[in-house]
Amino acid sequence: MTEFQPPGRLVTLADVAREAGVGESTVSRVLRNHGSYSKRAGERVAEAVARLGYVPNRLAGSLAGASTGTGTGLVGVVIPSLANVVFPDLLRGLTGALDGTGMQSVVGVSEYDAEREEALVAALLSWRPEALLLTGLEHTAGTVTLARASGVRVVEMIDTDGEGIDTVVGFSNRAAGQASARHLLARGYRRIGYCGHDPSADLRASKRLAGFEAALAEAGTALAEREIRPGRSSAASGRAGFEALIARRPGLDAVYFSNDDMALGGWFACLSLGLAVPERIALFGFNGLDFAEAMPQPLSTVRTPRLEIGRRAAACLTGTGPARIDLGFTLIEGATA
Amino acid sequence: MTEFQPPGRLVTLADVAREAGVGESTVSRVLRNHGSYSKRAGERVAEAVARLGYVPNRLAGSLAGASTGTGTGLVGVVIPSLANVVFPDLLRGLTGALDGTGMQSVVGVSEYDAEREEALVAALLSWRPEALLLTGLEHTAGTVTLARASGVRVVEMIDTDGEGIDTVVGFSNRAAGQASARHLLARGYRRIGYCGHDPSADLRASKRLAGFEAALAEAGTALAEREIRPGRSSAASGRAGFEALIARRPGLDAVYFSNDDMALGGWFACLSLGLAVPERIALFGFNGLDFAEAMPQPLSTVRTPRLEIGRRAAACLTGTGPARIDLGFTLIEGATA
DNA sequence: TTGAAAGCGCTAACAG
DNA sequence: CTGTTAGCGCTTTCAA
After folding, report:
1. What average pLDDT does this structure show over A113-121?
2. Domain annotation covers residue A335
């Protein structure tokens, strides 16, 4: 298939230089279109590259360029999970914005474990990324030390409820919880239950709940009941949780879910149990996922700017100085609450 | 906070060696726990590392180790999208299996564009990964050439309907389509419609449909109607597509959807329109997503081994010789068809 | 416009 | 067990 005798080792820049009959530095200049070179040199190099199927070695390139500030073009990203759409969405906004800038993200998944996050940060930093994107504001002391010492820009995404290391891009989960509670209160619901997934991992869900309860307290009331399910959120978990909740406290007139997946499960349960929504019981979610608005009764929820957070985080990489960007959220007045 | 004067530049292995009062190679040996060194050397190095906050530079390490076969510990991955749960699930299986092996995946998103995939492959290969994981079997000639020339193991995930470059891990989308059709036929449905998202991008959906139609043809029948929606799949798209389909052909007795998200939208439409499922009309999806079994009527669908594909792909990285692993799929007899 | 040469930070022989 | 030394493949002065 190939017309030339491939060398046992991979083709190097030196091979290209020899093939093109020019010096190595000339090849380097041509390849990066940096510095000046003759048209003829450019052509010969291009030909040689094509002929040999040369693929630059960025390990070497970045190492050599490191001394003079030429970056690796890498950005290290740590997200807690891939099982919750929120984070792929975040990555989607990020990679979309990075696309064409020549930057490449390297992502690690912490599974909501701060220790693992620290290990990932250390591993990512060893590739000398130009920036570090973390999720949330809660990290181990080691993570913070590593991040600071690395000298690279650090962007913490999603959560703005607290102090950041450097730049923070997100929204207030606490405020989202408060807004949700106020909405339910304004609609007249008073016997409100909470149905959530395991909060020990998802600190942001806890912050929402805290905000929710604070708003209830402000109004002189409180959560009538709560059901916390082990494991990650899902429609199945939401369904089971709702059923448990309503069995224990049939008098509830509204349920606040830890997110839309859980709420969908709750809605499924209402359908099965023949509970009219929202007349008999109201449902409220969080995230504003795709399916929410396609439901026969659009789900009442809070839409979060997930893609935008990713995009803005990407924009911050080149930005100057620490920033604190609150992108807010949108309360969706659906038909379930 | 830090107790020592940080150098302007990042701490290097040479700094650690000086601080520990040993040679550089000793530090290297200690750090990688490779070769032998005295207990005392180990301790002194560990102290120095901690004191200086040393983070190894893997660019340099991998470059130096390259000549002797020490790899980068990187695996390049290209997926078509992050917007469809399928691919994050794939990554989840993959990173889960890679976790603890010291391997780190670097992923690129092609947005279902073969040209972009080629560019990503070239970019990823420039980091000298130890393996390349691609999605599907359809690539540009350039991608194939690059992959072959790189000399690294190539694993193509998800689709087994065709020839692979090297190793293939997945299931037959065509067979999944066939199985779905046979299920509907066996249940007595004869006026079957198809509701799908844009197939120009998602070739695997097209393969499923081809299998589906082939099975219908075998039974001497054919698709009664089809509705193809532009853009990516979603419940909203499925709902709109189903409504268009049923308006055009009210006589349909079953609808095959390009995936579960679309099918969920169809089910929502049935609820809104008051069409009894499956008595008046049956619905059939694809993927076997979480929510499918939590529905009041569990969705009839085909469950795909997404996580397992990722895991097996990871396992193949160390495997020997090309392989062709068909993980199959499971037809879920839900209550909608 | 170009090539020669000196590293980038690390690993891996090779002597000691 | 340990230090010295020679690169890994590339970028970047610096002269020419």
Report:
1. 97
2. no
- Cα A183 to its chain centre, rounded Å, is 27
Q: Which nucleotides of C are covered by protein (CB under 7 A)?
A: 1-14
- Judge if A294 and A220 occupy the same domain: yes
Query: What does the alpha-carbon distance between residue B262 and residue B237 come to, in Å, rounded to a whole number?
Result: 6
On the question of pLDDT at B7 being above 90, the answer is no
Is there a contact between B305 and B88 (Cβ–Cβ < 8 Å)? Answer: no
Q: In one letter, which amino acid is A119?
A: A
Share of chain B above pLDDT 90, in %: 91
- B84 neighbors B61 (Cβ within 8 angstroms): no
Cα separation, A70 vs A64, whole angstroms: 9
Residues B297 and B311 placed together within one structural domain of the fold:
no
Tally of CB atoms within 10 A around B247: 10
B200 is a domain residue: yes
Q: At A250, which CATH number?
A: 3.40.50.2300
Residue A2 pLDDT grade (very low, low, confident, very high; cuts 50, 70, 90): very low
Mean pLDDT, all residues of chain B? 95
Q: Closest CB to B88: pick one of A82, A268, A296.
A: A82
Kindly indicate the confidence band of residue A8, based on its pLDDT and cuts at 50, 70 and 90.
low
Q: Is the pTM of this model over 0.85?
A: yes
The mean pLDDT of B309-314, rounded to a whole number, is: 97
Angle at B121 between CA B117 and CA B124, to 5 degrees: 135
Beta-sheet pairing, B301-303 with B330-332? antiparallel
Residue A333 lies in a domain: no
The least confident of A312-321, B69-78, B192-201 is A312-321
> Which residue of B lies nearest to A238 if distances are taken between CA atoms?
B294
In this prediction, residues A25-51 reach a mean pLDDT of: 95
- Residue–nucleotide distance: A73 CA to C8 C1' (Å): 16
Query: Which nucleotides along chain D are within 7 A of a protein C-beta?
Result: 1-13
Domain that holds residue A39: 1-54
pLDDT for the residue numbered B322: 81
Asked if residue B3 has pLDDT above 70, the reply is no
Q: 3-class SS at A246? A: helix
Question: pLDDT tens across A91-111, in order?
Answer: 999 999 999 898 999 999 999
If DSSP codes are grouped into helix, strand and coil, which group holds residue A84? coil
CA distances from residue A44 to A35, B20, B283 in whole angstroms, order as listed? 17, 50, 61
Q: How far apart are CA A120 and CA A142, in angstroms?
A: 11
Average pLDDT over residues B96-122: 95
* Residue B148 and residue B196 in one domain: no
The partner residues of B133 in beta bridges, in order of sequence, read: B77, B155
What gap in Å lies between CA B126 and CA B59, rounded to an integer? 12
Quick check: is B336 in a domain? no
Condensed to tens digits (0 to 9), the pLDDT of residues A231-252 reads 999 999 999 999 999 999 999 9
Helices (H), B187-304: 203-218, 235-248, 260-273
In whole angstroms, what is the distance from residue B172 CA to residue B194 CA?
Answer: 19
pLDDT for res A319: 75
| A13, A51, A52, A59: best to mutate for the B interface, most B CBs within 10 A | A59
Q: How is residue B31 written in tokens?
A: 């750090």
Listing DSSP states for B137-196 in one string gives S---HHHHHHHHHH-SEEEEEEE-SS--SSEEEEE-HHHHHHHHHHHHHHTT--SEEEEE
CATH of the domain at B43: 1.10.260.40
